[in-house]
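The material for today's practical consists of a large collection of protein records. Read left to right, the backbone structure tokens trace the chain's path through space. An example says more than a description, so a record of this kind follows:
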Amino acid sequence: MPKPPERIAVVGWGSLSPLGTSADVTWRAVLSGASGIASLTQDWAADLPSRIAGCVDESALSDLEPLLRRRSDRCAQLAVMAARQTWTMAADHRAGVDQQRVAVVVGTGIGGLGTMHIQHQQLSAGGPSRVNPLTVPMLIPDGPAGQVAIDLGLHGGAHTPVSACASGAEALMLAQMLLQDDRADLVLAGGAEAPVNRLGLVGFSAMRALSCRNEEPDQASRPYGLERDGFVLSEGAGMLALMRDRDVGSKPRLGWILACGSSSDAHHIVAPEPQGLQASRAIDDALRRADISPADLSAVQAHATGTSLGDMAEARALRRSLGSAADHVPVCAPKGQLGHLLGGAGAVEAIIALQSLNAGLIPRSVNAGPLDPEVDLAITIDGSQPVPKRGSDPLLLKNAFGFGGHNISVLLSAPAGSTPERRA
């Protein structure tokens, strides 16, 4: 058995999502049951098979400097604004930390897809002279991590895990490794994605991955639901400030990352291994590293995108790993409200998971009913419910899976019933 890793303290966070321009606004929207999914009314979307998406309110970027807007893709812009929120929230904890020892890890599934699309249009319409000279640095996936490091003046390393929809969660795993290996004293870690454009929607529609419930956008994302017909494409960014717990001293924590597990399906470039065998290994890996039994879990936050194959593979993986505990451990599926933020999903949802533990409340899984009868899990269909008391601090398992067979499971903990505002 591997030695249980030192737990990593969460000392700040920030997010921009279809549900809100900050983590607090997003959390209130989650509790209210609101949907961040809306119809796309732009002319460029008129002929698309899927004309719905989750978009971040433009006010979230209103404070972004015009020069940075021109020199960065929307994906990087979202990451910078989430990082600024996180940096501000962590002000007391980062005081005295050498910025040479602050690292950045920002995962993304695609990176500057909007830039790629726009600049190809420019090339086709006007020739080479019309292409932005910053096209390459704007579209490459490490752009968000680099822009965050530049914006905040951080010199401890800028890293970019690119593992499709597991990228944001893998960023948390890499951050944990950096801290445990003493390569940094503080890490800003998370994910960002901005895929809501014509190219993004066409690409995912072509593989029949997207819901086409265009007349009912708020009903379209149906994780684990019997009537699910694909995921809803969304954009956003989430960032967490992380430190070794022993370095935080007497200052408050928002929660902890206890352990991270990983595996790869080695099965198919898009489809998950149908029985969830390797996804189960990632779950088992996280539990083993934290020396946690399935019976110790208070809740699970599922990846559950609303695709037929993906949801069933995860449901089977959870049942295999949790055994009889899966009969009663509540499972929340947040993408019914958020849609799928791809590389940003793992981080934005991890913040929601920690807020859930802090508040002592597991949110309702919106649109999950009627539940697919083959999903043999305790999905929170009927409403929010209290976090079960199973120990001193509740434990939550958070899953994130990505195209290509990337599997990440993260074990989170936080003091139940103590909101960040009351403990700050």
Q: What stands out?
A: The first strand starts at residue 8 and ends at 16. The CA atoms of residues 357 and 416 lie 5 Å apart.
